Amino acid sequence: FLRQLQKEKPNHYVPQESLERTLWGLKFRSPIMNSAGMFKNGEGYEVMFRQGAAAFLGGTTTWNARPGNEKLGVKLPFAPYPKSGMASNWLGLPNLGDEVVAATYAKMEKHPNFPLGHSLMASPDLGEEEKLEYLVKGMKLYEAAGVDWLEFNVSCPNTEVGVMDFQTIRTGLEYVQHHFLDQRSLNGRARSLPVVVKFSNDIDFDSVQDLMELLFELGYDGVNIGNASANYDLHERSVLSSEKGLFRYFCETFGGGVSGRRLKPISLSLSEEAVRYLQVDPPEQEFHVFRTGGIESWQDLQISEDAGISMNQWFTGYFDRFSQHGHKLYQHLLEKEK
To answer: What are φ and ψ of residue 74, in 5° steps?
Structure first.
């Protein structure tokens, strides 16, 4: 489906100007765009532009190419629970590697006022020091390729990384600060490439303030909350009885992350706390809160707007809407529901 989707050339829909917002000097056409994971290797830029997304986000990628997960003869395990508005996946970050994807961006014809972002993370296949070294190498390649902002993914339930502890997170963030963020401020170079850090929806509510303080201190430009969730016991309560068997089988057999409607109140609560702290003690740099998890309607966008959240990303909600409205999904969301 994704291979076919990226080849499509639908009519170009442009959201009304009243929905525009400017982040870090970049003009986003509306408050909603795709999340990481939809287009691992940056293939969907043109179709997202034509559909009417606010911007485009490629990845998540790693320095080395990864084939993705396979178990019991099932490659890239995925299961939808359509009646429950949820899904599970254990994909394992399949991607062609940072060098290949950055080269694709460098040759890509980019559209004005349609920001190109990219998500990447430290490869779980490499040693502790090596993975951070190559993470920064990847960031520099994407910067040279002309991306407009980066998303540093520090947790993924579809790999052995999972949700990292605070000290491990600090170590990675400090390394990137010293070898990438600070380097953009040296020798007269403008610090023009924003870096957003993406955390899991499984982070503890009480840790949000500490994480925000750390991002402020180290000079990051935003936070995205968050990734798919591995809290299976909690989410099973929201799965309809007709889909519980599949849900239990998938989680027990593959694990991975749960996405969709059940994450709506979680992503909102964590994002609201991030905004609250941002407003109480803002950093010197321009800083924005992104929300990912359970986004599926205009009402969700309005609730995020009222909470002070700058941008929304969707994955499961996108595919559900595409099944209903095809390429006109953004137009339906932003005009007919509003």
So the answer is: -105, 115
